[in-house]
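Standup, Tuesday
Yesterday: got the pipeline producing structure tokens again.
Today: sanity-check two examples.
Blockers: none.

Example 1:
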Amino acid sequence: MSGRWVDPYTDPVIDDLSVNPIVLESRIGGLHLKPAWTKNLGYYDVLKYVAGVLRIFIGLFFHLNRQERERLLWMEKRIESEFGVRYPLVRNAVDALAWHHALVPVYSWLLRRLRVRTLVIICSYGKEAWIEACRRYRVRTIELQHGTISKYHPGYHYPEGTNKHYTPDEFWAFGEYWTKTASFPVDIRLRSNFGFRYLERAVGALGNVKDDGYLLVISQGVVGHRLSRFIVDALQFLSDEIRIGYKLHPGERLNWKDEYPWLAEQIGRIEVFEGEEPGLYELMGRARWQLGVSSTALYEGMRLGCRTILVELPSVEYMEEVVASGCAVLIKTAADLARAMRDCPEPEGRMFFDKDDSLLADLNSVGTAEASRYD
């Protein structure tokens, strides 16, 4: 977009607001991506540096009580017995708590200085210091969904008998589906249907022109070896009229020809996309089918009208509710692909992404909304 870096979770929201938010960004992968599309963008790295100095002094005097230490030592032993790994849980817990106690007063100072009334965050886990600082000064906290959620996600799923203390006041989901996929902490107010505005813009721009013979493979690094081998093995069962695109994950682009030589040998039959262009949404808008395992992008593909086929590989369990809902077909072998392409249903993408503009009006009503973007 005009050669600028766009945050897909916050920038489309900010563009639609009638108020001017203050946007705070920490370093992303050790860097600040510039030039940024975001307006009123500020960096708070210096606050972390200040907290880092405080942490040193806090760490000298901070101690766990007896009950806490005994509990953590018991957990250390359980981890070692279950996984065969010695993890210094006590030491790391002390370090994390020292960081927390250093960050809270620093963030509190910033909230007072800016007179913040509402803080919007992306990915609340790891941001507990922000949440405690907001509670101290009665600042409303809202988390916007940034990815998939399931009962296997430790950041959101808290089964009966467990809970989390430092949680945002509200969680605004892409759609109602996501609020039912996990047992959220009891103190969070769940608000459905905020939507994913970045995706909705793509839906409007692309229209709905499908290539009836096009299959798009959505790769993931964790299963890339097996998924790429799977689609190559499936070629013998597919008609030559089926055109296949293979969209690499950014983490696979550098060495994919060495890592997946069997895929490189099929360049004439499979078109491998290793760069930013064409964009993923553009490919999804074209594809009649998409094939993958558990990538978040698969949900976006369903919103863009792709019939969805999942391969039974590690992590596909994250998609079990999607399969149970009838929105996708699960296959085990390469020989199953042709049949699945005939049988898989048209997706109902709105069950995952559905926009309710009343929530945007809620942010506007704050008067001066504050949006925060984190690494």
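Example 2:
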Amino acid sequence: MPPLVTAAAARCGYSPVVFAIDGEAETASFTGVAVHVIRWGEIGRFFRLAHAAGCRHAVFIGAVRRPDFKAIRPDLGTLKFIPRILQLMRGGDDRLLAGVAEIFQEQGMSLIGPLEVAPELALPEGSLTPTESAGAAVNIEVAAEAARRIGKLDVGQAAVAVGGRVVAVEDAGGTDALLDRVATLRKEGQIPASGGVLVKCMKPQQDVRLDVPSIGSLTAENARRAGLDGVAGEAGRTLLAGRDATIAAFRRTGLFLCGIKPPEPS
């Protein structure tokens, strides 16, 4: 996803500079742009490089794990932020990301969402692959409601429904771990041997610039292993990890992919 968004930003007229967190990103995937590898704790170095490159906007994209404090080696520029970061780490993901975004803005960089620079990667409304299976509409409705409810609690962004009932929801382990649990439930005979839908939704209170739900080829493969019929996400609020590649993966695995209408603002 990060290389795709970087390329889209360049097409929009930006001059992207990539800051890859050491151990979290594969820098070989980027071509034609400046790439800096930043270790956890090098906040001072990051802002020095960003300011030197004239960066005025920032986009957060890609998954990262919460760092092990024992592995962090703060530089001088980081020391002043440590008390604030420790406080943010005590909250959920939404609070942590919002706090980091605030720090960026204080340093003269406005935060913009990945869909602003890569609108072509947004999941459109409707079916992108063959028609959904029987019972899919009910499963989508049930799973979407569950995903939004756990999202409101800042737990996760996804849920799986089988046979019209929720069987698993996303937690800190992410979507891949959720689908692994569904596969295990099937092997143990706790849910039907096949069928069901994964639905991903943005958290109701979520900042649309941060942690946008995403669906890609790996989602299709893991959903197939979990025995699902398909995957749905909120149209215009879900990133496709490469539109053509993602659609091809869903066709290859025999699963449906569709975009559902987001709820009306309350």
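Quick observation on example 2: The first helix runs from residue 2 to 11. The chain has two domains: 2-114, 122-260.
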